Amino acid sequence: MPPSECVHTNEQLLHWLALRLTPGLGARKTALLLERFGSPEAIFRASTSELEASGLAGSVARSLASGCAFEDAAEQQQRLKATGTQVVAFTDVLYPPQLRQIYDPPPLLFVQGHVELLDTVMVALVGSRRPSTYGMVAAEHLAIDLAKAGVTVASGMAKGIDTAAHLGALKAGGGTCAVFGCGLDIIYPAENRKLAGRIAAEGLLLSEFPLGTPAHPQNFPIRNRIVSGLSDGVVVVEGVQYSGSLITARLALDQNKEVFAVPGNITSKLSFGPNLLLKQGAQLVQSAADILDGLSWETRSKLARQAELPLEEGAGQEPGPMAAIASQVLSFLTVDTPMHLDTLLEHLLDCSPSEVIATLFELELRGQVRQLPGRSYVKVWYE
């Protein structure tokens, strides 16, 4: 179905909510119904036999045909209004394109905060709920540098690494997206209530679960596919052998997303997850520059356009900070001898890695710099 504008009449929203609240109807079946019938209204107009012919079990088809979920949908609609929660449907232009591509995209997203963050480059930072001091420091440091580079940091607002990631992004004045495993009106864990309020004001809260949905344990693996699905890459900081962060990393691989891992102490159980991912081919992370450089060309191009870096200053204007960094980068690079990114960063000690990476992105787009295999760069030669 082609995307539509994110403007619902009360009647349209009621049908979307009733579809979401129909017992036994999951995300995959909902997507197939929308593909066949075109809209929630058309689905509810279909007969029981038509719905069964679409592959639904008899009980689910009868529930849809009877419209038994409309009373709950009307109640949900009132709760959404009272809490200032917005709904983004699968067919809305605001629905993230990368999330639409996963195997079982949620039909509805419930959001609070800056919905425009759905159209930004996102990187997920995930890890243990009981991390070491090293893990907390690493997560916050990476989140700060990613946010400074214009990346929206996504995570699950759990204790530990998730909390450090969200706080780091907020500390840098950047965007962050917290994906819930329950309704947005239920803060879990309760100790993160203040953090949730801050993210609602400065970032984005998101859930596929309707308001009032409790934080059932089985919801969190379901939530993890949204964390990875929204993101252009997933970074695992710490995690034990059977951790949720490893589940998120596997989901990211299934979704053809980049997977990164922060190496850890081999004597620590918390290092099992990221070190295993590294053995299996994940990209090693020592700084945010490793993450930015490891993203796809399309993602890096979007990030550069998103940043709108003022490398070319107009007449009579003072050179901007990015223009000054670009000038330094071009002065160090040559046309015939590749320079490794780490070497370039050593020459630019007054600049953060994220600023240098962002500048290199823009210079690549302008055709002034070319990236070579092995994270090396040369200046483009002009006659």
Automatic annotation (TrEMBL):
Cross-referenced InterPro entries: DprA, DprA_WH, DrpA_SLOG, RuvA_2-like, WH-like_DNA-bd_sf
Record-level GO BP terms: DNA-mediated transformation
Domain of life according to the entry: Bacteria
Ranges for domain DprA winged helix: 319-374
Limits of the Smf/DprA SLOG domain: 87-294
Pfam families in alphabetical order: DNA_processg_A (PF02481), WHD_DprA (PF17782)
Family note: Belongs to the DprA/Smf family.
NCBIfam families, alphabetized: dprA (TIGR00732)
Protein name as it appears in the record: DNA-protecting protein DprA
Gene transcribed to yield this protein: dprA
